[in-house]
Known about the structure:
Number of domains of chain A: 1
Oligomer: heterodimer
Radius of gyration of chain B: 33 Å
Structural class of chain B: alpha+beta
Structural class of chain A: mainly alpha
Shape of chain A: elongated
Number of helices of chain A: 3
Number of strands of chain A: 0
Strand content of chain B: 15-25%
Helix content of chain A: 55-70%
Shape of chain B: elongated
Distance between the termini of chain B: 31 Å
Order of helices and strands of chain A: HHH
Amino acid sequence: MSIIYMLLAISVVVALGFFAAFVMSVKSGQYDDTYTPSVRMLFDDELVKESKTSITTSKEESIKTKE
Amino acid sequence: MSACFHCGDECRTTVISHQDKTFCCHGCKTVFDILNDNDLSYYYDLERTPGTTPLEQEGKFDFLENEQIVAKLLEFDEQDTQVVSLLIPSIHCSSCIWVLENLNKLNPAVKTAQVNFPKKTVRITYSSEILSLQDLVILLSRIGYEPYISLDDASEKKSNIDRSLIYKLGLAGFAFGNIMFLSFPEYFEVNEFWLEKFKHVFRWLMFCFALPVAFYSGRDYFISAYKGLRSNILNIDVPIAIGISVLFIRSTVEIIMDWGSGFFDSMAGLVFFLLLGKFFQQKTYAFLSFERDYKSYFPIAVTRLVKNETNDSSIKKEEQTQVYELKKGDRILIRNSELLPVDAILIKGNALIDYSFVTGEAEPVNKVSGDQLFAGGRQQAGVIEVEVLKPVEQSYLTQLWSNVIFSKNKQSAFENITDSISRRFTVSLLVIAILATIVWMFIDISIALNVFTAVLIVACPCAIALAAPFTLGNLLRIFGRHKLYLKNSSVIEQLAHIDTVVFDKTGTLTTSVKNTITYEGVALNDEEKALLTSTLRASNHPLSRSLYAILDKNNIQTLDNFKEEVGQGITGVINNRKIKVGSFGFVDASHKKTQEDAHQRTAVHISTDNIYKGCYVFYNEYREGVKEVFDTLKKTTGIVILSGDNDGEKEHLSTLLPKNTTILFNQKPEDKLDYIKTLQDNGKNVLMIGDGLNDAGALAQSNVGISISENVNVFSPACDGILDASKFKEITQFLNLSRKGIKVIKYAFIFSLFYNLIGLGFAITGNLAPVVAAILMPLSSISIVVFTTIGTHILGRRFNESK
């Protein structure tokens, strides 16, 4: 049953590991701006230069929706 | 009428058709072209009409030629890598984020750009070898994202954000979970064989987890309790600190003496819930600043005229100089719509200075050469040359900030509702604990100490301490949703106690545009009307512009002759008919009778062929619902108007106000501050509502200072709250809501006292087992949180319905 000492040690180490990860993420400023990244992740595909045709189609669509 | 494809405004006067799209002005069209030519038209697909009309102003960013200023603005500067953070108030949608972060498509010298949307800032890394900061700023301005750079940016940057509360909360939560886990076996299996063997390990592990909770996470409560006791205040942190220390000491003693498992789980839970409340109470609006002074309103640099050293003729060199470096005797140049940062004497040019923001005078004032000009005025006509009288810190306006009120911490003097109940609570808690101990000494002395500590543990006012943070935190968010942005939650408590409301006039009760215009005098015939509009069209004076805007634009003819005398008026001639439009003295010099009267009001007088016809009188347009606000407000509070303007509007204003309202005119900034101080000395709780720099003193002195703003992103003076101008008519409801919020807190107090009584029942009879404390503590905390959340939610719903 002394295996429980080892299990305890492991569980504490794992818990401390997650705690350290939390502290590090706060320290690096990840939670300072929680809004912009949520918008930014939706752009990623558009950062690639679009072909001319896709621009016109998307434009036409936007005009249609306007009407 | 079609809407502009770029900015979404209605195309009024001109409609520009371009690539099957309509634009309201050339500025908008240019932005579209720039973006379209650079494969950035996705901008328009993300959001509809996301743009802002760019405002071109020649030479506005010339000051960025000065390397010292640039050095102050840059965050990082080494060889070909420069980093700058710019505040861009016009950031408002996802298109904005996208286009700004793709700035490198417009100029390859930009390496990266990262937007912080809540703060409305963009952090740009670029290479100054290819692109100067000035060009970068101009590029941003050209696509409608003009950065806002003020004197404040040149001052020392503040230290980093304080994240210690998050660490403390995280640590307490982490320890709370682990301790709960470890203490669970002993709650249920008391005499089990393996548990007997391992329980000491479990207990000492709990002790290790509890150590940082007591000494790091709970540190603030000990500090605050100590400070409170030193100044003879029994604040809520005193019983909390007692609770935490008793919990910790008794638990440690228990596990050392092998009496039991202790209350470490309750202690960690207590600290965790308390910090959670603290965290929830903090709602910050990153894009707003409540600490601004004149520095964020004033420009960072001006154009100084320096004598050319090579030849000592009168030719002068223009030089961009930091405002802080201006000395007495320097000559500076102020362009149209630039701000004068110092007290100065006018040397050359026609000055038409708009002081509405600094003194509350509604009208731009004409000044002639030799007149003294005060800092903070905005030039409205052409270029002027002035000589500096005093450096920026010593000017008439900025001296207001040397008043002691600006260095005082307003909140510290205020006893909040939790602390006021804590006084009685702590005293009765101690009395109960001591009485119970004495009684037990006679019955069974061995558990007397046990009872004493149990009472202190179970009565720890966790639920009481949570009631206010959660109620006020929720209210703060409700206020924010209705566009009243408050600095912190204690402002709500102060709002509930308000019994006198003081209003500023210009910019607060009135809108910034003045366009209620009435005509008095002999009616004009059609020909005269056409003559008038044709003449007005040629003038750039603000009054001419607003008068022109409301008149019929029929039969506009080209003038045969037009003359504008700055500060006086304009003369127009068509077919030998002459019209004079302007001040009374200019239009009709022979008449003197109404000179005095004419001076007080804002009026444009008209004469045709030297015969006096009449005048257009300009009234300030009052905000929508001003009268209703006064009518509902007078039931609960007193109303006072303090205006920096002259009393020309007095009659008009008093029709809106309830009878016997105090209205004071010609109030200097210090007068306003002093008036509020007098009110407070008479025991009043004053809410000041103002808008300009001239109200800054009064806003700081009042119990609650709320600054009203047409656009919350632009400058507003230091205050406790910023109210969006469109919500002006809801002021009474805001006051009522805060009063009701305090009621919710009081009910929550009663509710939590009920829990304390149950706990005391266990404690006094000497039956407080760790498992009871472990259930009671979180249960009371959670039910208080639920109660206050539901309570404020109902209040918020009613607030919506009341509109």
